[in-house]
Amino acid sequence: MTRLFVTVLSILSVIWACLLPGTAHSGEAGYAVVLEVSDAIGPATSDYIQRGIDSANADGAQLIILTLDTPGGLDASMRDIIKAILASPAPVATYVFPSGSHAASAGTYILYASHIAAMAPATNLGSATPVSLMPTPPTPKSKPIDGDGAEDGEDEVPLPGSTAMERKVINDAVAYIQSLAELRDRNAEWAERAVREAVSLSAEAALEQGVIDLVAANIPDLLAQLDGREITTEGGDRTLATQGMALQRIEADWRTRLLSVITNPTVAYLLLLMGIYGLIFEGYNPGAIVPGVVGAICLLLAAFALQVLPVNYAGLALIGLGILLMIAEIFAPSFGALGIGGVAAFVIGSVILIDTDVPGYQVSRSLIGALATVGAGLLFAIMAVAIKARRAPVVSGIEQMLGETAEAAEDFQAEGLVDVHSETWNAKTHKPVRQGDRLRVVGVEGLTLLVEPESNGDQS
């Protein structure tokens, strides 16, 4: 029994060790860790790369290869990745791969920050100008570059930012990428152009201009070219021995995949709406439980996602206001005033919610349009029902009793019982009636009906 227990424990230990990323080669010399990025740079990407670098260094990896194919991403996530690269004792080789890939915007900064910058044939990098949400006005021109005071504009070059804030952002980006270029002894002049003019380079042109260190057809070719190269890292100087080096790929785990899903702006937007509506439905139906539970979970997930995304809080407030106005229209019909205002606030807030136009980080406009259309449709349907109900004849209450026909349930002179709508009521009359006479209701006093014979001929 003890031997069986030990055997089972050993098997479980081996399985657990295999499942842990970065442990397959722990303690072995001469292996490289491969991290793969093929999407926009965001919080999930940053978390994946940082944990991958930490794991590789903890396990003694000799080299970290970051294969990159990205259209750019969020500035905060990019800077977190660069900090992790700069602090890594093991050299990081960022490799734009496979052919057809690109390292645009944030990818260019990461490439410049890496200890080794490599590209595959038929790839490109550049277009590193920071982008903003709002369209910029026409770009003004600078003073003549030769200082001759010419007025014909031939010597003038456009300034990259037309407002103080835009110039501030661009100058900060230029200083940042130039500092990385100086650290890695790469082409700082072209780096500035990539930011100010959004220029791009092919792999071969980047190698010729000193922007990258080498062009490699694939990872084995990359390792072959890196063999014997001397690299300076936070851990000191080292000479790479990469010929025939073993590779260990670290895949994105469930945490990274979950973070990637919920930090998608469209998913975060839907979670926010589901959370708000769930709590509202629970408030109007206390004890339903399910809407409240689902709403609370969705709202917490949305709060987590939005705190790592560039959120415009004015947009968030407009969305909340729009939902409240649309709900108010349902419970206090204003014939469109509240509802239309709510739809307008909801659409505007949804459009400006994510404060960036980085590719992959906008809320789907078609989704916003669909939700706004559904909301407006429901409001118009409610308005139509309210108008129809206002015009319909009264079918209940005291007002409905006036003019109704009653039948005397007994003989009486002034007060007695009558039947109306299969109900027995107390009634008063100024004329004597007999059982079975048809009477008309002319008034109501509390729980007593005022009646009179429909016609003299009805009395016998």
Structure description:
With 460 residues, the chain is an alpha/beta fold. The chain has 15 helices and 16 strands. α2 (43-58) packs parallel to α3 (75-86) and α2 (43-58) runs antiparallel to α9 (254-262). The protein is rod-shaped and about 120 Å long. Mean pLDDT is 81; it is low at 1-9, 11-29 and 133-160.
Please provide a brief summary of the model.
By secondary structure, this protein is α/β, with parallel strands linked by helices.
What characterizes the major β-sheet?
A: 6 strands, parallel
**Strand segment tally:** 16
Structural class: alpha/beta
* Mean pLDDT figure: 81
Strand arrangement in the largest pleated sheet: 8-5-3-2-1-11
Write the layout of secondary structure elements.
Elements: H1 2-19, E1 31-37, H2 43-58, E2 63-68, H3 75-86, E3 92-96, E4 102-104, H4 106-113, E5 116-119, E6 124-126, H5 164-184, H6 188-196, E7 200-202, H7 203-208, E8 214-215, H8 219-226, E9 230-233, E10 236-239, E11 246-249, H9 254-262, H10 265-284, H11 290-307, H12 313-331, H13 337-351, H14 365-391, H15 398-401, E12 405-408, E13 415-420, E14 423-428, E15 438-445, E16 448-453
Parallel strand pairs: 1-2, 1-11, 2-3, 3-5, 4-6, 5-8, 14-16
Antiparallel strand pairs: 6-7, 9-10, 12-13, 12-15, 13-14, 15-16
Feature tags:
460 residues, alpha/beta, six-stranded parallel beta sheet, five-stranded mixed beta barrel, 15 helices, 16 strands, disordered N terminus
